[in-house]
């Protein structure tokens, strides 16, 4: 069996007295696309953010291609924070796309993509610019290279953000509600880019409320509520055959809200 | 109104305005370096730098500049440190301004959305590049208007350095007033030079604001 790209074991996380994640187990195999769904506040974004240690988890293990992220184990098996340089090296391999894009407003679209290539990958300026331009072409924004983020639509901004992450040539991509902040008519263009990425075999872990997208693109759906994965399996099973009452209730509410 | 006072004193006042400007610019520039360092210390997330930064702001914002200047000039001399007047003046101005600039920059950094730094962290940025390339450029842009404010205040406050014997604009205006017995003309002329300096600074500030805002 191949080593999972992401392997989470008994992951727990608390904010003060509030326990957000409770013993979560989740594997994502190479080239697999896993969608995390669930109600707001269920812990799905927190779980996603534990994968690249933007959110330090308190319990359990998160391994990226077999390597524990965020902590080192000493000879007695005690955990201590990982050396910052090694954590940075691991994060370089994990692309992340945020709900609010988080493009840097003081740089053009092209600079947003080329800047990390220069600072983090250490590419010379010309090479970084070329690769950035190629990435913008790939997300259909070659003509927006010189535009500043605030001059772009939400959908365009999110595509630049995807290009920025992809330019780093990550081994996997995390998406944290990538379309939740978009006007409804701009959602499609972002999902289209993500669909193409999935078709190319990128490993993806996606927090989303786009059930249609999840049903068509995901290899697996994980339903989270109260910090636990209550159901996990192929989209068909989770969406249509789940016996878990919370899952059925959640999907029912979703259908009711989207029916008109 | 005797207009000959203006023409006779113009050269002296222009020279004194140069002194004021040079002192203030030195104070502003060193104050910016201090302010940046103190601000980074205060936001470092490490207890000791945070405490030291907070203590710095409390002390140098809490003590009047006049007292600070006199302290630097006289007290240090009594413990055997003979500080030249110019060093005491620039030292006092920059130490004081540094405290204010630190707070301006801190406020601006807090106004940069959290996601900006997070995006850099997720991409594998180290702390230095994250600050230098992502956070500070945005904070500086936000802080241009309050910084210009602070610079103008500093230029006006630089009149206090006359207490350590430096012939800057206010002191020279006073001298002209007492020599000519025409205080009205002398201070009118002095005030005019302050106004020119500060309007120029404000103009440069708007220019910087516009340039930094391009595209944003």
TrEMBL record, chain A:
Q: In terms of domain of life, where is this protein from? A: Bacteria
Does Acyltransferase show up as a keyword for this record?
Answer: no
The terms describing its cellular component in GO are: plasma membrane
Report the subcellular localization: Cell membrane
Write out the GO MF terms: ABC-type amino acid transporter activity; ATP binding; ATP hydrolysis activity
Which keywords does the record carry? ATP-binding, Cell membrane, Membrane, Nucleotide-binding, Transport
Entry-linked SUPFAM superfamilies: P-loop containing nucleoside triphosphate hydrolases
Looking up Pfam families in the UniProt record yields: ABC_tran
Q: What's the main place this protein lives?
A: membrane
CDD domains per the UniProt record, alphabetical: ABC_HisP_GlnQ
Question: Its topology with respect to the membrane?
Answer: Peripheral membrane protein
- What Gene3D superfamilies does this protein's entry cite? P-loop containing nucleotide triphosphate hydrolases (3.40.50.300)
Concerning InterPro entries, the annotation shows: AAA+_ATPase, ABC_ATPase_HisP-typ, ABC_transporter-like_ATP-bd, ABC_transporter-like_CS, MetN_ABC_transporter-like, P-loop_NTPase
The ABC transporter domain is annotated at 6-251
Q: Which family does it belong to?
A: Belongs to the ABC transporter superfamily.
Q: What is this protein called?
A: Amino acid ABC transporter ATP-binding protein (PAAT family)
Native species of this protein?
Roseiarcus fermentans
Automatic annotation (TrEMBL), chain B:
Question: What is an example of a GO molecular function annotated in this UniProt entry?
Answer: transmembrane transporter activity
Q: How does it sit in the membrane?
A: Multi-pass membrane protein
Which keywords belong to this entry? Amino-acid transport, Cell membrane, Membrane, Transmembrane, Transmembrane helix, Transport
Tell me the ranges covered by the ABC transmembrane type-1 domain, including all copies.
Answer: 17-205
The protein's matches in InterPro entries, at most eight in alphabetical order, are given as: AA_ABC_transptr_permease_3TM, ArtM/GltK/GlnP/TcyL/YhdX-like, MetI-like, MetI-like_sf
Keyword Acyltransferase included in the entry's annotation: no
Q: Which Gene3D superfamilies match?
A: MetI-like
One annotated GO biological process? amino acid transport
Subcellular location per UniProt equals: Cell inner membrane; Cell membrane
- GO CC annotation: ATP-binding cassette (ABC) transporter complex
According to its UniProt record, what is one Pfam family this protein matches? BPD_transp_1
- What parts of the sequence cross the membrane? 12-41, 53-77, 83-100, 187-208
Q: Which family does it belong to?
A: Belongs to the binding-protein-dependent transport system permease family. HisMQ subfamily.
NCBIfam families, per this entry? HEQRo_perm_3TM
Q: What does this protein do?
A: Part of the binding-protein-dependent transport system for glutamine; probably responsible for the translocation of the substrate across the membrane.
Q: What is this protein called?
A: Amino acid ABC transporter membrane protein 1 (PAAT family)
């Amino acid at each position: 069996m191949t080593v999972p790209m992401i392997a989470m074991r008994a992951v727990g996380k608390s904010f003060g007295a509030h326990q957000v994640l409770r013993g979560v187990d989740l594997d994502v195999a190479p080239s697999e696309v896993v969608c995390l769904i669930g109600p707001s506040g269920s812990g799905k974004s927190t779980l996603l953010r534990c994968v690249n240690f933007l959110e330090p988890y308190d319990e359990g293990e998160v391994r990226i291609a077999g390597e524990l992220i965020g902590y080192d184990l000493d000879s007695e098996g005690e955990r201590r924070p990982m050396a910052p340089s090694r954590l940075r090296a691991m994060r370089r391999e994990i692309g992340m796309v945020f709900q609010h894009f988080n493009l840097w407003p003081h740089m053009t679209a092209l600079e947003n993509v080329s800047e990390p290539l220069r600072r983090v990958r250490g590419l010379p300026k010309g090479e970084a610019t070329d690769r950035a331009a190629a990435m913008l072409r790939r997300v259909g924004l070659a003509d927006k290279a010189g535009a500043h983020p605030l001059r772009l639509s939400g959908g365009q901004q999110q595509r630049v953000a995807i290009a920025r992450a992809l330019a780093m040539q990550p081994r996997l991509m995390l998406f944290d509600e990538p379309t939740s902040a978009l006007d409804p008519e701009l959602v499609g263009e972002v999902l289209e880019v993500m669909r193409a990425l999935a078709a190319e075999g990128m490993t993806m872990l996606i927090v989303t409320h786009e059930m249609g997208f999840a049903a068509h693109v995901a290899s697996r759906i994980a339903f989270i509520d109260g910090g636990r994965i209550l159901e996990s399996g192929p989209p068909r099973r989770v969406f249509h055959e789940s016996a878990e009452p919370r899952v059925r209730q959640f999907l029912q509410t979703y259908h009711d809200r989207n029916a008109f | 109104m005797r207009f000959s006072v203006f023409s006779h004193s113009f050269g002296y006042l222009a020279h004194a305005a140069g002194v004021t400007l040079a002192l203030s610019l030195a104070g502003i520039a060193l104050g910016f370096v201090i302010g940046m360092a103190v601000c980074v210390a205060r936001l470092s997330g490490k207890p000791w730098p945070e405490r030291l930064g907070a203590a710095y702001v409390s002390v140098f914002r809490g003590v009047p500049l006049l007292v600070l200047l006199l302290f630097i000039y006289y007290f240090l001399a009594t413990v055997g440190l003979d500080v030249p007047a110019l060093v005491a003046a620039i030292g006092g101005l920059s130490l004081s301004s540094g405290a204010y600039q630190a707070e301006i920059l801190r406020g601006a950094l807090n106004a940069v959305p959290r996601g900006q730094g997070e995006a850099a962290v997720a991409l594998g940025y180290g702390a230095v590049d994250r600050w230098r390339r992502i956070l500070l450029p945005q904070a500086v842009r936000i802080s241009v208007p309050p910084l210009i404010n602070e610079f103008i205040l500093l230029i006006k406050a630089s009149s206090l350095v006359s207490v350590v014997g430096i012939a800057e604009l206010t002191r020279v205006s006073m001298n002209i007033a007492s020599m000519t017995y025409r205080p009205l003309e002398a201070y009118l002329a002095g005030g005019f030079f302050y106004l020119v300096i500060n309007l120029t600074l404000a103009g440069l500030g708007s220019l910087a604001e516009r340039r930094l805002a391009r595209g944003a």
